[in-house]
Amino acid sequence: MCLWGFLRLAESAVKQAFWRRVEHIRLFASATLALKMLSRTNLLDRLHAERDRWALWLPVFFGCGIGAYFSLPIEPPPLTGLVLFAPAFAALIVLRKSQFWGALFLAGVFVLLGFSIAQWRSHSLKAPILERSVGPVEVRGRVVSVEPRSRGERLVLERPKIGRPSDGQTPARIRITLSSGAEGLYPGDWVVGTAKLGPPPEPAMPGAYDFARAAYFQRLGGVGFAYGRFEKLSGVTSDAGRNEAALPGRLARRWEIWWADLRHRLSERIVDALPGRSGAVAAALMTGERGRVAEGHLEALRDAGLAHLLAISGLHIGLVAAGLFFGLRGLLALIPGLALNYPIKKWAALTALPGAFAYLMLVGATIPAQRAFLMTGLMLLAVLLDRRALSMRLVAWAAMATLLLAPESLLSVSFQMSFAAVTLMIAAYEGQRGRFLKSGADFWSFGSLVRYLIAIAVTSAIATVATAPFAVYHFNHLALYGVFANVVAVPITAFWIMPSALLAFLMMPFGLEALPLWVMGIGIELVIGTAEGVSAWPSAALTVSAMPDWGIIAAAAGGLWLAIWSGTWRFLGVIPLAAAAVSVALWAPPDILVSADARLLAVRLADGSMWRSNRAVNRFAADIWYRRAGIDPDSDSKGRADGKSRAAGSGLPQCDTLGCIFYKESTTVALARTAGAITEDCALADLMVSLVPVRIDCKHPKTVIDRFDLWRNGTHAIWINDAGIRVETVAKSRGTRPWVQRRGATQAR
After folding, report:
1. Which of the listed residues 103, 123, 143 is the one where a domain comes to its end?
2. Assign residue 692 a region: left if phi > 0, alpha if psi is -120 to 50, beta otherwise?
3. pTM to 2 decimals?
């Protein structure tokens, strides 16, 4: 019986194993068949069905080439892109009749074209960068721009003369912050003063914003602050003989300075006629000078999701162009002889186009403004040619034109958020034209008003979703109630504030701008009040930990897949978007951060809060450390404690005058503040961080970071886990690129 039972049991087990294997084979066959269908017939059918959308991917491939150039850890040899571009272009010519290979090589050509343009741009803008801090020293130069701040002003000077450096070491441009004393200085003036200067600062931690890279493409070779006033030099009217090769053509510089001077003078007239916070916001909207807006008001606008109102973009350019177009067309329509016999619609478009261009130059031609002008210009051109503008194509070629002129803009938050918002909005509204707004007699009806408010709410929600990944990646910030704030603020801006601004511009030549500015100020107060009210709601804004690079790439890829394709397979883009959302949770903030100047150390505690060694130094860097860890700098109470002694077992570092010691997992970490602590710490620590040079043979620690390492490689980020100790440095994350200054060979331990 026992044997019979055993045989029955064995038979049952064999049958179950057999049918499981059959089921696995069936599932495998089904999956293989599905993949086969997707990879061949189904995929090709879907691609053929959307041939009219293929061209929209060309700017994407162009941007991929630019991104590939900037992602390299080392600078490629000159003409690398062109060397690879030539055979790819030849292959495209040969295989152009093959649908598959032709499309593949066309994509490759655009990738290599983007790579080549970015490399050429990088080398064409190369200019001297200060190697070290200098000053206090006398500085002379010509003012390129005056940027008012809530406290003081910033001057950008070209052709500076700094102390006695040789001509080859003198930057093309420098930026100096003045606490006071810039009254009466305008672009084009030659000035002199005393300042302390240094090279543009590197990132505050690995992966953080790289100001030095942005400064490189602005030809800023030094930044600093002034001691006292800067005085205007009288009798200096020519720049001949002053390092003529250091900057682009003289005509382009004069054009830039003329607009900067006009911008600054108009801003002064605006704030004189409309003082207070309303005048500061009015100047930001009309001239692009946002520096006068107080930080508290900027924070309220950001937390309420209304910061885009201060970033001159499609709303502002479109309203200016629309005001000129419809205003002139309405006036001409009052004259029957013109309206019936001449193309007044085209005349209005011809007037609106240079008007929009003038506004673009006045506000400084920022990336969102460039995108908006290009799209508006193409739409007005379509009116002139009696053609219908294709919105998604407008976005695609506006992006292409922007990247051709300034490929480095691909890395800027303004480019990413501006194009992400408008691309997803147009994709969402394609095929839905006329659903919310209807033409005809009921345009001013209550139903039209409701549809308009619904459209604003939906548009705001779409823009919030589109820009959320980039807001997290760049600012670690999310505004949760932007939809509600925009439903109130956008109509006020569109129908009250911007028409008043346009009227103020028209009245300025006659000195009559005070009344329209006063009307504009009332609308601005309503918007600021809305921002302050919404930002005060519970959890109006969230501080989110940093998103890794692969997360933002996945978000961009998923968004583009959703926006560009029109079939149901577009929803496959949700998969990379979900991966991007998960990436924030997967990224672990560093356990230890040490600043490049060895003055600040921060430790992430077990409860997620952060302790730092000193609250009086490097506050800007500390705020970035907190935000990238997902911590609001103003809400972390434990980060405020930096006393000299800690109780053992409290989870906080135990510190004295010589240094600190703390424990992470099973790792003992020692921080040596003075040379007297090095010998003892070397004998007991697994990780040694010394704020002074280590000049002895320190064998026991697995990793030693001393003052020389910090000087060479910048801020260190350290992760400690079961796998061991991992160290990332600013120098390693930036690589060897033209905008990176290496202070010495990396020391390996």
Report:
1. 123
2. beta
3. 0.84
In a domain, residue 223? The reply is: yes
Calpha distance 161→190 (Å, rounded): 11
Dihedral sign, CA of 44, 49, 55, 56? negative
CB 607 within 8 A of CB 628: no
Residues 532 and 664 in one domain: no
Quote the CA–CA distance of 594 and 611 in Å, as a whole number: 12
Domain housing 15: 1-49
Task: Provide DSSP, 529-593.
Answer: HHHHHHHTSTT-EEE-PPPPHHHHHHHHHHHHHHHH--SGGGGGGHHHHHHHHHHHHHPPPPSEE
- C-alpha distances out from residue 702 to 661, 683, 688, 712, 715, Å: 16, 11, 8, 20, 19
pLDDT profile of the chain (749 residues), mean per 10: 39 44 44 46 71 89 95 91 88 82 88 94 91 87 87 87 68 89 83 91 92 93 90 65 48 84 90 91 89 87 87 78 86 85 86 88 83 82 72 85 92 89 83 51 60 76 86 89 87 88 90 92 93 90 90 94 86 91 90 89 86 84 91 63 45 81 84 84 86 84 88 91 88 92 53
The Cα–Cα gap between 324 and 376 comes to 12
Model pLDDT, residue 558: 93
Task: Say how many C-beta atoms besides its own lie within 10 A of residue 400's C-beta.
Answer: 18
Contact status, residue 603 vs residue 662, Cβ threshold 8 Å: yes
In this structure, are 392 and 521 located in the same domain? yes
Residue 479 belongs to what H/E stretch?
Answer: strand 477-479
Q: Which residues, other chains included, contact 508 with Cβ-Cβ below 8 Å and sequence gap of 6+? A: 266, 269
Annotate 242-274 with DSSP letters as a single string. S-GGGSS-HHHHHHHHHHHHHHHHHHHHHHHHS
- How many residues are listed for the chain in this entry? 749
Query: Would 152 be classed as within a structural domain?
Result: yes
Number of domains composing the chain:
6
Same domain, yes or no, for 15 and 155? no
Give the 3-state secondary structure of 438-476: CCCHHHHCHHHHHHHHHHHHHHHHHHHHHHHHHHHHHHC
Answer yes or no: do 218 and 99 share one domain.
no
CA 254 to chain CA centroid, Å, is: 29
The predicted pLDDT at position 530 comes to: 93
Residues 6+ apart with CB under 8 A from 111: 61, 62, 64, 65, 68
DSSP label at residue 614: -
Q: Identify whether the C-beta of residue 550 lies closer than 8 Å to the C-beta of residue 586.
A: no
Is 385 part of a structural domain of the chain?
Answer: yes
Is the same domain home to 305 and 379?
yes
Q: Please give the full DSSP string across 269-324, using - where no structure is assigned.
A: HHHHHS-HHHHHHHHHHHH---TTS-HHHHHHHHHTT-GGGTS--HHHHHHHHHHH
Is the peptide bond preceding residue 738 cis, with omega within 30 degrees of 0?
no
Q: What is the CATH number of the domain that holds 154?
A: 2.40.50
- Cα distance between residue 226 and residue 33, in whole Å: 71
Residues 280 and 406 in one domain: yes
**Widest pairwise Cα distance in the chain:** 119
Q: Is residue 180 part of a domain?
A: yes
Q: Pick left, alpha or beta for residue 536 (phi over 0 → left; psi -120 to 50 → alpha; otherwise beta).
A: alpha
Are the beta carbons of 528 and 281 closer than 8 angstroms? yes
Domain boundary residue, one of 27, 49, 71: 49
C-beta separation of 613 from 602 below 8 A: yes
pLDDT of residue 243: 45
Question: Within a 10 A sphere around the Cβ of 308, how many other Cβ atoms?
Answer: 25
For residue 627, what are its two tokens?
Answer: 């935000």
Residues 113 and 135 in one domain: no
* Type of residue at 636: D
| Closest to 540 measured CA to CA, from 299, 303, 308, 296 | 303
Question: Do 396 and 507 have their domain in common?
Answer: yes
